[in-house]
User: Fold these one by one.
Assistant:
Number 1:
Amino acid sequence: MPAGTTGAVAFADRHVGPSADDVARMLAVVGQPSLEALVDAAVPAAIRTDGPLDLPAAGSETGVTARLRALADRNTVRRSMIGLGYSGTVTPPVIRRNVLEDPSWYTAYTPYQPEISQGRLEALLNFQTVVAELTGLALANASMLDEATAAAEAMTLLRRSSKAPADAAFVVDADVLPQTLAVVRTRAEAIGLPVVVHDTRQGLPEGDLFGLLLQYPGASGLVRDDAALVRAAHDRGALVAVAADLLALTLLRPPGEIGVDVALGTSQRFGVPLGGGGPHAGYLAVRDGLQRTLPGRLVGVSKDADGNPAYRLALQTREQHIRREKATSNICTAQVLLAVIASMYAVHHGPDGLRRIASAVADRASSLAGAVRDRGLEVVHEDVFDTVLVRVPGRADEVVAAAREAGYWLRRVDGDVVGVACDETTTPADVDRVAGCFPEAGAAVDGAPVGLPAALARTSAFLTHPVFALHRSETSMLRYLKRLSDADYALDRGMIPLGSCTMKLNATAEMEPISWPAFADVHPFAPAEDQAGTRALVAELEAQLAEVTGYDAVSLQPNAGSQGELAGLLAIRAYHRSRGDEARDICLIPTSAHGTNAASAVMAGLRVVTVATTATGDVDLDDLDAKVAQHGERLAAVMVTYPSTHGVFEAGITRLCETVHAAGGQVYVDGANLNALVGIAKPGEFGADVSHLNLHKTFCIPHGGGGPGVGPVAARAHLAPFLPSAEVAGGPDAGRTTAGGTGPDGVGPVSGAPFGSAGILPISWTYLALMGPDGLLRATQAALLTANYVAARLRDHFPVLYTGEGGLVAHECVLDLRPLTASTGVTVEDVAKRLVDFGFHAPTMSFPVAGTLMVEPTESEDLAELDRFCDAMVAIRAEVAEVEDGRWSVEDSPLRGAPHTAAMLVGEWDRAYDRARAVYPAGVTPQRKYWPPVRRIDGAYGDRNLVCSCPPVEELAGL
């Protein structure tokens, strides 16, 4: 029995779904005598690791929670008044408990199946409405990763949309947040965009420019009228982006009213905890005419088969998987859960409540300015919203130290200036105490009142849709949240068998700590000694992930898998350049790879050359040899997924690594499928140089409807100096303390906060501590078993497209529907929608091969649920047979009619099958029935009639 369990059932017994009896029955179906034999048969011997993982033994939930509490207690939480884009806020309890802590929200998947995602999609449409109306722009997307990455995406959007000369610069105002500037520089350098930092209070710099980035209010707190500057930039052929504070925009003139092209920022202060820097939902909004250049996800209004209004992801090719190396962004993970929280904060408070909160913040800042003036000190700027800079010549360190002793974090701007940022949590008593930390410098200083400039007061209305007025009471808000979550399908209802996405148990013991104040209320730029617990957790988690993967160093800064991909490729590029190999710019990528891979390579300044795959789904090693020979000394890297995107352990992976290394290239192994490797094989040992890991897949951070995510990048020692560095973000206390990115060769940060989405790292730390080396191995074995069990049960009904040695798959399998589609017209979409009637989320559709379904059962599903899924697929195959036999046409079949709603049980019925067959297909009982709220959605209609904010109620009624 693992140490610390004190007789309780080991956590792994609850995390891994199949019992010992289930395992025996499943092995018999698969045709293997034991889990060890299955692994030996499926996994090439050449990549197997020697011995168990060198990790602490599994602990009990009680013991692990106590250890984590001890780490949390090493943090000293003070009232943060640092600002710089991160503010204290109050998460309304009804939202905290019923969104952030509710598995019906946090275990949901990206809403690619819109019929069973209507609740999330409505919440995201609310988010888009909030952003668009507060910024005064035509359209906003459904969230970005954070403010800094949103600024980088805005930069590339402006470059694509501008007609300025190719060598024109991107001008960044000197008052932009420092972490935003740092990420912009990282991204610009890779693709050769010149960045010029300039104090635009003096006008625009000389020379050609394609874009201008401003901050409103500025990092210094200054609120200024930039209308003339925007006009001047437009006159010179440049487009303008403004990073704007959403709360301030309830009181200030919105950027869209002065002709700004793009607005960006964060929604963090709308009820999202500080969390050490994340996860937070960034935003991006554009003026009319730029809609189709907008990166990220976009929720739109369409209609279902009955003509009723329904929501879906609009313009879905913007997800970039199809465009590959022609993609304009590699953004995949958004911040859906956090965007939902922010949207519900706006719904709960409404426009009047938001104005009251913003006015209170502004009043506190004004009071503070008056108090320090009374002490004889100079306030640097008079036109401010929430941030006051106070000049204390030579005494800034003294003031910051005194405030810290009094329980406050202030910002040291330099040796002479201290910044104080007020927020929703700031009280009049806080103002008095903080003012008392400043020295008495003489007689009171006169001056104009400090506060919002009257000339920039907002006059336009916002959030006029009824949804922002209906839910003031907690009763109403609770019921609204419940109605939306009831419309959705998440892991709390049943299996989500998505290939390459690993939708598995997110245990309560893993989730609870993210709400602890010791983690949730920490500012990312707080002094290092006040974050001792978080930094110790980061160091432990990095070391454990290095052990799991066989690498030497890990950086947790990337806040999505897409950012981890970019960071790994930037490290490769920087490594080659450090050796004088500037010409190495070719990245080889198999045609079967994730679409984000090619997009990431382009963003890293590399040229993509594709490598063919064989009929068995493996990388074509002969074509690889040819491409390596063709590009010779220009070869920078190969980027592969292992096990392959086709769900197979390729025996040729070691030869692939040797071939690329012999030519001087580096090997990037995409860690998306690490759930099939943990405890069995380590990429860093079988030939890879760098990988990103998806903590929101293998390591149990929940998907949250499409985010949050964490995508750490792990590398061997020679690449470690080139991992992303956070030293420049937020001042001297924000540098890394663990391996990677600390040297002068680091590529710079890829996200705004020093440790990315630090607020959710306790989830993966807890998972590793609860599982231990034996539990992790068992999870991997179970993942391989469940996938092979599904493949064995279904291969006589739907051919398994790719298999490895002995007909085995890895942790997922690809079911080929193309022959059935050719003979009957039944499509993968028909099968996916019919699965809804059986009470399932569909597998991955048409990826990696069009016309297929990719299934990943994960280790968390028990045999009963696996059999329920397999039985549903067999029943659907029988319905396809009825089309084949001519009982009904595909158009008249329950497959094409799916999904079926409760409303279809009443009224006329003119279908070839009866109502019971429609809504209660084989194996579905009324007690367990999930009812989709809408019928199949017309995607083409939604794209032709693009509506991406809350439409008027009368328009909804008329759709």
Number 2:
Amino acid sequence: MAAGFGTQANALLRKNLTFQLRLLCSDVNRVEKRNVKANIRLVAFPIVLCLLILALQIVFDKLLNNNDDNKCGCICVRKNGDECEEERCGIEHSNLNQAVFCRIPNPPEWPPLLQIPAPEYRAVRNDFMTFTDLPNESCKINGSCPAIFLLTGNNRSFGEMLGENMLPKTFSINPSNLIGSLASNVAVRVQNRSRVQVNFLILLFFRILPIYSVQSRCTSNSTISARVQLSSINITQGIRCLQGLNLWRTSSSEINDEIYKGYMKGNSEEKIHEIIAAYDFLNSDLNKFNMSIWYNSTWNSPSRLVRVPRSVNLVSNAYLRALLGPSAQILFEFVKEMPKTETQQMVDLSSIIGTLFYTWVVLQLFPVVLTALVYEKQQKLRIMMKMHGLGDGPYWMISYAYFFAISAAYMLCFVIFGSVIGLRFFTLNSYSIQFVFYFIYINLQISLAFLLAVLFSNVKTAAVVGYICIFGTGLLGFFLFQVFVQDQSFPRGWIIVMELYPGFSLYRGLYEFGQYSFRGHNMGIDGMRWADLADSGNGMREILIIMLIEWLLVLAIAYYIDKIVLSGSAKGPMFLKSVDKCLIYRPAGCSVYNSNFAHLFTVQREKVEQLLLEPSTSYAVIVDNLRKIYPGRDGNPEKLAVKGLSLAFPSGECFGMLGPNGAGKTSFIGMMIGITKPTSGAAFFQGFDIRTEMDTIYTSIGVCPQEDLLWENLTGREHLLFYGRLKNLEGSALKQAVEESLKSVNLFHGGVADQKAGKYSGGMKRRLSVAISLIGDPKVVYMDEPSTGLDPASRNNLWTVVKRAKQGRAIILTTHSMEEAEALCDRLGIFVDGSLQCIGNPKELRARYGGSYVFTMTTSADHEAEVESMIKHLSPSATKIYQISGTQKFELPKHEVWIADVFQAVEDAKRSSRFCLGFG
């Protein structure tokens, strides 16, 4: 009875588990671990990366995260010896670096500041900026350089009037109300072009930076001391007067050019040319107000919030004064930050650099799956399993589930280990989101491996490409894709296009996990939650959709290619290779169709036609006018490989096929085992048609290919257990069949059965292949040169096995040995140029067509004439049929030579030591 779906799935699952677990139980219950190093490397890779991140995190915590400058400043208010019992923390106890981390429950009001360049950086006339209205460069010596405003517009007189109205002409500061006074026009000097954060730090600015009031002109002593109280801090600050200078330019392009030149020369500290702001009043007049503003945010990005509002307020007040008089004013009193809790700038490496490392970890599974699939393809194990009854459904279900179980266990260990050692990348983000993300991706990865396995025929090539994909994807994701994701100006549509590549989808998902865990750690909140997927800036939802669709699509395409395209376009059994050998026995007269045996072919055809009409028959295989034509390629004509063959093979018979290379033997067997489709004609196995019912036929045939298609890491016993289960054997019957098979091919004793097949000799592998073809009592067995590579003793033993196996089944074998054909075959067919030339039992063919011997001699080229002379002396009618590089072959008619004379000539040649020879 044929094995069902469940039995086939069980057989493949057991084989896969045995292959993966690498466990071998011998007769003495000794357990040997196989490929332990490969498994250790696979598991150790994510563990080592996680431990490396953890070690770096510990170092960062000691050197940076726990540094006093990365938290709000504190002072000790009560000590007990050297230990502090009580401390107070706050912005008033903080330096410039610490202040940004302090708790600000009630942010103070502070004036909108107009930031100006330090004296040494202000715009002056020099060798590259030659405007004559600019101040002389000598003003930098005493720090008296004015602050420059550039103006332009369609109406110069109106624009210059607005420029004059922008700056107050008097220096009036109310010391008791500094904040209100500063609201009119104040600039803060930022020294050394440093990148200073301005939010929450106005108190510190008042402490360490001079404050200027920008006026249209200043007297010699224009400094006022004032006292200000901000929050709980009292500050005494000197307010200085700074002259503001409005300079007119003819066009906006002239202003743009001046700013650009100053920026380009800014690479040299002594050439810096900075202005406060520039205004283009365009077509403004008393009826309409239209303008553009240039402002500089190059050196201090946060200050743009200060520069822009105050710059707009200055020119708006100037326009208002032009309309309503000098007393008109839009009061811009203060700006105020949002309240904030105490924060600490903690560097979480698992979130920052984890994206790259974790991408490598997850992608490491891809070459593992890919190489496993390519290995079965390269070793032709998939087709071997199929020919022994494994259907496509069980293969796909078990193989996919097997790889999924490995991937799921790998990812589960990875997440658990990362969580146990405290990596916030895992602990802060929702585990349910992580589960869904990893579940979809590993399914997509497995499906992709099944699809791409079609492109490779070599395991090493597949492994190299796989690992290049691992590291290439990680590096491209980190240095290219992540930059595009962070660039808000980059089109989001192109981001989605890039995410169609599964590696970038993986990187984007891990990047989002990293960003949310980083923010959650610094702000003391949770990482990514399901509600966060609705955030427009969160790309997790889109990649989950992309990966899910790709998973289903890639899986369907991979299955279609495997099931339809490959099966339908296969050109022949790759393992049935033709070997360039000469027939030791060559019947004379068989090179063309022999008329003496014409009636035999007619009988065979008539017999086939009669059998096809019978409702039931004892014949195992019936071949009806089977033809195979290979289409022409590369300019070559089409090849007629099998020419209308009609044969019937009864059970209990061994049929031998002899013929030179290219005779059609391989093509015939290929059609019979379903590897190639016949061009025309048909063949039936117990009533089942090979053209449409091969899946049913596979359950009842055995195949011994010319190459030994074995798993190197499985033992001989495990091979037979697997193929026995495919033939529906189980329990004690399976165990008995395996032991009998091992004994029959002399692989049972000495622990040979429990050794890995990769350690077998060529002859042992051959015997195991024969045992596989016979296990499970198949009704028809195809053997392609089964005794190749065996020593004489093993060959005779194998012949005994084949002879016993003929009982109740048909055996069809190919061979180049007439001795083997005579020992095994009940009937023998000789094929030439795709057609059957002779058929009969071996003794009959030998008696009728065995009219000559083939004599082979090898000498140096100098003695070829002597060899030919010797052969002519033995047999005047001898014909030379082959000669190359000193090797010659002759056909000697049997009636002209005696074996004794031939051997005597051989002995004479040996004594002369001139050449060596062979005889057949």
